[in-house]
Write a structure and sequence with these properties.
One of its GO terms (molecular function) is adenosylcobinamide-GDP ribazoletransferase activity. This protein is mainly alpha-helical and 261 residues long. It has 13 helices and no strands. The protein has one domain (43-256). Helix 4 (37-57) packs antiparallel against helix 5. The longest helix is centred in the C-terminal third of the chain and has 27 residues, at 202-228.
Length: 261
């Protein structure tokens, strides 16, 4: 039963999808990262459904894309965007490591968070428009699953910048072996799904997506360890947002080059 409870905790914590409330015991928390990619499935299916519903309702591609750009924030409640904003303020402070970690904890929003949010949403809307116009939202599901599998692996195996906080809690309590195997299987399943559902040039599209996300993953580790001494929950959210945006742009580019759709 602890596995089911861990699933419910993961979904309730990382999304606004309604699930029964359960106690957050240390044993259950240890398996939360195993289920993190489930939230990616929910997000992907929501966007897939919206592509269908928007078309039936007569939305233009632009209108449908703007709704699609907002849906991830609606599904997740903005938990990862919060980390992105905090990280933008911290990185652009150009302070020392301790200063940056203090900024991550600061609940106030700085100028670079606002600038970063505006720029990010414009880029996300552009990517969403291209994916919408090409009708590729059903093929984007691997993007949302793989990024969360990689984020979970970082929480479990990367050094933590602090001994307290969200990332440290999951890292300390995680059943590392189970989490590593589970998240690796999620990665493999997402890759196989991408190869199965993307017609024409699927191998190029799927492998390109892996390459894009691994490049972002490598940047994330280098940045987190180099500037912060390890990862935090905010940095994990920052990675997920950047990885998602890069994945959607790759999918749009692959579609235009005839590798998808």
């Amino acid at each position: 039963m602890n596995g089911l409870y861990s699933l419910l905790i993961a979904v309730s914590m990382y999304s606004k999808f309604p699930v029964p409330t359960v106690n957050w015991t240390r044993e259950r928390m240890g398996y939360v990262m195993c289920w993190f990619p489930v939230v990616g499935v929910i997000e992907g299916l929501a966007l897939w459904f919206w592509q269908w519903a928007g078309g039936r309702l007569g939305f233009t591609a632009a209108g449908s894309a703007l709704v699609a750009a907002a849906l991830p924030l609606i599904v997740t409640g903005g938990i990862h965007m919060d980390g992105f904003l905090d990280t933008m303020d911290a990185i652009h402070s150009y302070g020392d490591r301790e200063k940056k970690l203090e900024i991550l904890k600061d609940p106030h929003v700085g100028a670079f968070a606002v600038i970063g949010c505006g720029g990010y949403l414009l880029l996300y809307a552009a990517a969403a428009y291209e994916v919408t116009a090409l009708g590729l939202w059903p093929l984007a599901l691997p993007v949302f699953v793989m990024e969360r599998a990689l984020s979970g692996l970082s929480v479990v195996f990367f050094p933590c910048a602090k001994k307290s906080g969200l990332a440290a809690t999951f890292s300390d309590g995680a059943k590392r072996r189970a989490a590593g195997i589970s998240l690796s299987l999620w990665l493999a399943a997402a890759l196989c799904l991408g190869g199965a559902v993307i017609p024409g040039g699927s191998a190029v599209t799927a492998l390109g997506l892996v390459a894009v996300q691994l490049l972002v993953f490598a940047y994330y580790r280098r940045m987190a360890v180099g500037q912060f001494g390890g990862i935090t929950g905010d940095l994990a959210g920052y990675f997920l947002q950047i990885c998602e945006l890069a994945g959607l742009f790759w999918l749009a580019a692959a579609g235009h080059m005839g590798f998808a759709g």
